[in-house]
Design brief:
The structure holds two protein chains of two kinds. Chain A is mainly α. Helices cover 65% and strands 2% of the residues of chain A. Chain B is mainly alpha-helical. In chain B, the strands form two sheets. A five-stranded antiparallel sheet of chain B has the order 1-5-4-3-2. In chain B, a hairpin with a 2-residue loop joins strand 4 and strand 5. Chain B is flat and about 115 Å long. The chains are: A mainly alpha, B mainly alpha. Chain A: One of its GO terms (molecular function) is calcium ion binding. Chain A: It holds the Pfam family EF-hand_5. Chain A: InterPro entries: EF-hand-dom_pair, EF_Hand_1_Ca_BS, EF_hand_dom, Recoverin.
Chain lengths: 251, 1025
């Protein structure tokens, strides 16, 4: 509040409109964040460093520096420093969804929830920094096999290692424009599910096992994201990498 | 009788009635009318006709009886008209009849000849109606049925008679029409509708599609046709005169089977001109389109509008039919439906899309659905059936309605645009009809369903649907056409413009396959799909780029597509795909993708490079060095498109130079030894085209490319490869050094073996190569020893002009060897070569004439041999009238050889060789001059030919030849002048033209004892004067 006054004095007048108020306020907030961040980076550099070292040993596709960048990005997104000592620390569902939406162009809420669930391996409703980096490793650099595994996990709604007819229907139910004239508006989707199942279900047990899914995708790569976009497209992935990995050079 | 006579009766050009069954009927009817008129309507029969009917009769005075005054000069009836003229007057052979009563009597008198009399009467009174009733009445009646001429009592009778005749006329036509309908089926509605809508187009704004269109006749028979009845029998409906904006007036016949141009029927009644003078066309629009480019263009514009209209309709139809499908139409309704559809179709058949989509689909769908959903049907039970019937008739209604709609003027526009799109897709249409006759395959309905999902699905559903579609056998035509017919192409192309990478990939994967079908390719280009695909080449996603390039490769197999690619900057983009590092041993995944992209780019360029302008565009975009770099790739699948492009482009001089300069010959030679025959073939083809250049030939030798070429001759089963290899050998053997090198590998033997049982493509090259080899004396012997002469002479019987040119050349080259010549003579080869002078191709003519020279020179008894060829000398003299310089030169050369034999020279002279040669002397072509002078020189040796040459003015031009820069011209000219100078008059001319001066001024470095000697002689002679 004192700062406030000071600035108002410095401003040499009275704030006439709320717009100016707000802009001033945001400048101040930014300033505080900068203080926190610079302080944090000096304080936590060591922590990040050691964390990066340990994580980069477990993740294939990122170098140590890249992991450091991703940790920094994670912290930035989290808005609070990571401390290894804390019990619960990570991105909650809401925040994760907005990240997916803003950075990776995912749009479908249901799919984004599924992606969150897949990232959140320990099911604690938070994506920890480790889960974040592990997830991104597939997201950005995953091999086809890894992506197949990942997508299968996303689509396996109940986690029974099969994608059932019902699960497919659930995921596809909004994918066709419903004809109001039809007696059964879901007819088209049901048909689509049948066609897809027929195509992918190689062992003819009426559901997709991982083996089915893997074989189908290897035959036709387009089927990787068969039941909804759950990976970033190449453009936004490149943009994300460019932004995150180049940051240290700028700083 | 008016209409029936003018329009129904068939007249010959001489104004006679043809002896056809229809004319017979007509005559009989008229006869019975005339016979009955007298008894039935006595009053009318007495009515005096306005003008007498006059004809030459076969009746004589003796045939007439009591009621007549019979005198020496003729016969007159007792009955007279108001002015005292007899109603019947016979001055043999002419008879004048002024009333029906008299006509009736006359016919009666004629007895068994009555038909002939009536025929003669009608033939000589073509305007019978006018003669009978006068002009006014006739005209009046055309507008109203009530003549307004009723002034006097008498006229009333006249009008009655007129009506009687009119009735007869109508009756006659009705009867004849009935007969016609029994024999031929005429569908006038289509034609009339077409014409109506075209008339509409003529009025269309400032740029009408046509200047005018009109029927030749305004009279429409009750069956709707306008052609004379006797032409209707032939199935002709009407005749049109169409004035297009850009070509001459078209006279068109519309018949029930086809539309074609006639020999010019301009008005209602023509006796001739009905014959067909063009190909037949399916309908009027097709004919107009093919005849008038302006019209075609106009129609294409219309088509776009029509497309929108179509779509609207389609949607409506689809909804209906979709509901239909849900309901499961049962067998009963189907049966009920089919005949109805047919009848509707037969009548109008305006829009095949309606037929296919609207009317056709419900029944077909039901069929497809049936086995699948039999369970469902049970649940629905019989209650659903009645409901279905109601629904059904409703759904078929729009189709019927819309086909009727076109009859109204408002619908005319729609019709024309509809039918234009129909005729545009001519072959497709025939395809469709074929399909709709048979049952559509189940794939058709499945694909239709998938396309519907594509239209209404989000990204995920779209990708799934695309994958499902990829599961069909897309190389199968039924699937390809099904996708197009249900509107799938439009959707697939639309997907290309979205931002969804996966959708684009899926769409391209399908397009890449279905575009193997010609019709699909055209449709893609028509729908503007190629532009979208070209745009995708800029995408950062490599998979997409590669797929797009691959699709382009498959679509651009016709010229319009290639042009489109160029016009949208596609060539540049494709060339930029070629940037990659092709020859690294180990590649990263990224580099591998780059290589794949480059490969697809090369494939597309290969396909595009079939257009000359594209070759240029590729070069300008810097494609040649990039291709050169890719040529170093170790992978065959990369090399084939690259070499394919290069060999395609090597038809251009600029490329040949570039290929040589960029050092590609080495790589081409290297790949000749590849294991892949296709690659070998393209390499050999590239060398074939490039080796026209001497440096290239030397390079091939230096890179040791000759031996691999020879070893390719062993691949006798791959004819394309063989053709390419022999072609390369042919061109390489133009260099003597190469011939020597080739000889080490016994090429001649292999080539001679290939002279029999090979396709012409191979033969041309083999014979060409032999021709080059035969320039060397040793080869001639070898060819003979291998038994090559006989197959060569046999080939002279062929028809392929390129082959004949080479064969004659080779035979000529062989004939320079005495022993070869003996064999050729024995095989009657000279006669065969000689007869080729009659070939229409001037290349063959000249080549044959050149070949004759050595033949005549080396034949044992040349004079006798030439004489034995009946008409041969005349033939050769006549060829001096040719306009082709090469032909003329070769014929002159042959004449020079022939003229060595005095007897033959005499024959040549008789055929007028001297004036023909003299006429040619004004030429400036050195080649021709040289041989012409030679021929003149030799032809001087007979009779008064020297003087004749002088008289024909050949001397002065010949003197000018001495100013030519070619010493060979001088040589033969000097010879000719020497011969000519033996005639004193010629000497004077030479002197006047300053031959001495010319000779003195000559300071050519070329020696010529010969020349100086001749000069000397000349000078001597001249000084003597």
């Amino acid at each position: 509040m004192s700062l406030f006054n000071a600035s108002s004095c410095h401003g040499n007048g009275v704030f006439t409109s709320p717009v100016e108020w707000r802009s001033i306020e945001s400048h101040i907030v930014c300033f505080f964040f900068f203080l926190i961040k610079s302080e944090m980076s000096s304080m936590n550099r060591k922590i990040i460093h050691t964390l990066a070292e340990s994580i980069s040993k477990q993740v294939d596709h990122f170098s140590k520096t890249e992991v450091e960048c991703l940790i920094r990005e994670f912290n930035l997104l989290l808005g609070e420093p990571v401390s290894t000592g804390r019990t619960v620390s990570g991105l909650d569902k809401e925040r994760f969804r907005s990240i997916l939406h803003n950075n990776f162009g995912l749009t479908d809420d249901m799919i984004m929830d599924l992606v969150f669930r897949t990232f959140d391996k320990d099911n604690d409703s938070f994506v920890s920094v480790k889960e974040w980096i592990e997830g991104l490793s597939i997201f950005l650099r995953g091999t086809l096999e890894e992506k197949i595994k990942y997508c299968f996990q996303v689509y396996d709604l109940n986690g029974d290692h099969y994608i059932s007819r019902e699960e497919m229907f659930h995921m596809l139910k909004n994918s066709l424009i419903r004809q109001p004239t039809e007696e059964d508006p879901d007819e088209g989707i049901k048909d689509l599910v049948e066609i897809t199942l027929k195509r992918m279900d190689h062992d003819h047990d009426g559901r997709l096992s991982f083996a089915d899914f893997e074989k189908a995708v290897k035959d036709e790569n387009l089927l990787l994201e068969a039941f909804g976009t759950c990976l970033p497209d190449i453009m936004s992935a490149d943009a994300f990498e460019l932004r995150v990995f180049q940051e240290p050079a700028e700083l | 009788m008016g209409v029936s006579l003018t329009k129904a009766a068939q007249w010959t050009t001489g104004g006679k009635l043809e002896f056809t069954s229809m004319n017979e009927t007509l005559l009989r009817e008229i006869l019975s009318f005339v016979e009955e008129l007298g008894s039935r309507h006595p009053q009318e029969a007495e009515q005096v006709l306005k003008e007498p009917l006059r004809w030459s009769t076969t009746l004589t005075a003796s045939d007439f009886k009591t009621d007549y005054d019979i005198s020496d000069s003729g016969v007159q009836s007792h009955e007279k008209d108001a002015e005292g003229r007899p109603l019947l007057q016979l001055c043999p052979p002419t008879v004048n009849v002024r009333s029906f009563g008299q006509l009736c009597k006359l016919v009666h008198l004629a007895a068994d000849k009555k038909l002939d009399e009536l025929r003669a009467c009608l033939e000589e009174n073509r305007d019978a109606m006018v003669q009978m009733f006068g002009n006014g009445l006739e005209k009046e009646d055309n507008q109203t049925d009530v003549p307004r001429l009723v002034k006097e009592e008498e006229d009333e009778v006249k009008v009655k008679l007129f009506h009687l005749v009119q009735n007869l006329d109508e009756l006659l036509i009705k009867k004849l029409l009935k007969e016609i309908t029994e024999t031929v089926e005429l569908d006038c509605a289509t034609v009339n509708n077409d014409v109506e809508s075209l008339k509409e187009l003529c009025r269309d704004g400032e740029k009408p599609a046509l200047e005018s269109i009109r029927f030749t006749s305004d009279y429409e028979f009750s069956n709707g046709c306008r052609a004379p009845l006797w032409r209707q029998v032939h199935g002709e409906i009407c005749y049109l005169v169409v004035e297009p904006c850009d070509t001459e007036t078209l006279y068109i016949t519309c018949s029930n089977t086809a539309v074609f141009l006639n020999a010019g029927i301009k008005q209602e009644v023509e006796e001739s001109g009905y014959e067909r003078t063009s190909d037949t066309y399916k309908d009027l629009l097709t004919l107009l389109k093919s005849r008038s480019p302006h019209f075609a263009e106009h129609m294409n514009k219309q088509k776009i509008k029509a497309g929108e209209f179509d779509e609207m309709n389609e949607k409506g139809q689809e909804k209906e039919s979709y509901r239909q499908r849900e309901k499961n139409v049962n067998e009963k309704t189907r049966k009920h439906h089919v005949p109805r559809k047919r009848s509707a179709e037969k009548k109008y058949e305006p829009c095949p899309r309606w037929k296919n989509l609207g009317l056709m689909s419900p029944c077909g769908k039901a069929e497809e659905k049936k086995p699948k959903s039999s369970g469902l049907e049970k649940v629905q039970g019989s209650g659903a059936r009645s409901r279905m019937k109601a629904e059904f008739s409703l759904s078929s209604l729009p189709g019927r309605l819309s086909s009727q709609k076109i009859k109204t003027p408002a619908g005319a526009m729609e019709l024309s645009s509809e039918s234009s799109s129909e005729s545009e897709e001519e072959e497709e249409q025939s395809e469709r009809r074929l399909e709709s006759n048979t049952d559509l395959p189940p794939e058709y309905w499945q694909i239709q369903k998938l396309v519907k999902y594509l239209k209404g699905g989000d990204q995920t559903a779209t990708v799934l649907t695309l994958c499902a579609m990829l599961d069909f056998n897309l190389m199968q035509e039924t699937c390809q056409l099904a996708i197009r017919d249900v509107g799938g192409l439009e959707v697939l192309i639309n997907l290309l413009d979205t931002d969804e990478v996966k959708c684009k990939i899926g769409s391209l994967k399908i397009l890449r396959k279905i575009s193997h079908n010609v019709q699909i390719r055209q449709a893609i280009v028509d729908l503007g799909g190629l532009q979208s695909i070209v745009k995708i080449l800029d995408s950062p996603v490599k998979d997409l780029k590669a797929l797009a390039a691959e699709t382009i490769a498959s679509v651009t197999r016709f010229r319009r597509a290639r042009r489109t690619v160029r016009q949208y900057g596609g060539i540049k983009k494709l060339v930029s795909l070629l940037h990659c590092v092709p020859n690294l041993a180990s590649l990263t995944a990224h580099q591998q993708k780059d290589v794949e992209v480059a490969r697809c780019g090369a494939l597309a360029l290969w396909s595009c490079s079939k257009s000359t302008k594209n070759k240029e565009a590729i070069r300008k975009a810097g494609g040649v060095p990039l291709l050169g770099r890719l040529l170093k790739s170790p992978h065959e699948n990369m090399l084939i498109p690259v070499v394919g492009t290069l060999q395609e482009c090597a038809s251009e001089e600029s490329y040949r130079t570039a290929i040589q300069k960029e050092g590609m010959i080495k790589d081409l030679v290297k790949n000749l030894s590849s294991d892949n025959e296709e690659l070998q073939m393209h390499c050999a083809n590239a060398l074939f085209k490039c080796a026209a250049d001497k440096q290239t030939r030397d390079l091939v030798r230096n890179y040791k490319g000759l031996q691999p070429l020879v070893s390719l001759l062993a691949k006798v089963n791959n004819k394309q490869l063989l053709a390419a290899a022999t072609g390369a050998i042919w061109k390489c053997s133009i260099s003597v050094e190469n011939v020597a090198e080739f000889q080490k590998y016994n090429v001649l033997e292999s080539l001679v073996d290939l002279l029999t049982d090979q396709p012409e493509g191979v033969l041309v090259n083999v014979v060409g190569a032999l021709g080059e080899f035969a320039q060397i004396p040793a080869s001639k012997t070898t060819i003979r020893k291998c038994g090559g002469i006989k197959p060569l002479v046999d080939l002279l019987n062929g028809t392929n002009q390129a082959l004949l040119v080479n064969v004659t050349k080779t035979v000529g080259a062989c004939a320079t060897d005495q022993d070869n010549m003996a064999i050729i003579d024995q095989l009657d080869g000279v006669r065969l070569v000689w007869s080729l002078l009659k070939n229409p191709s001037s290349d063959v003519q000249s080549s044959a004439a050149w070949a004759l020279c050595p033949c005549i020179e080396n034949a044992k008894d040349a004079g006798e041999m030439v004489r034995s060829l009946v008409g041969g000398l005349e033939l050769i003299v006549n060829l001096l009238k040719s306009t082709n310089k090469e032909v003329l030169a070769s014929i002159c050369a042959a004449i020079a050889k022939i003229a060595k034999d005095k007897e033959n020279l005499a024959v040549l002279t008789d055929h007028g060789v001297v004036p023909l040669l003299a006429k040619l002397t004004n030429t400036t072509d050195d080649m021709l001059r040289r041989h012409l002078a030679e021929a003149v020189g030799h032809c001087c040796m007979w009779g008064s030919n020297r003087a004749s040459f002088g008289e024909a003015g050949a001397v002065a031009p010949l003197v000018r030849y001495l100013k030519s820069k070619d010493h060979r011209v001088h040589q033969s000219t000097a010879m000719a002048l020497y011969q000519l100078s033996k005639d004193p008059n010629n000497c004077i001319t030479m002197h006047e033209k300053g031959v001495v001066k010319v000779e003195e001024q000559e300071d050519m470095p070329v020696n010529h004892n010969n020349r100086s000697c001749i000069c000397f002689c000349l000078t001597l002679k001249l000084t003597k004067l």
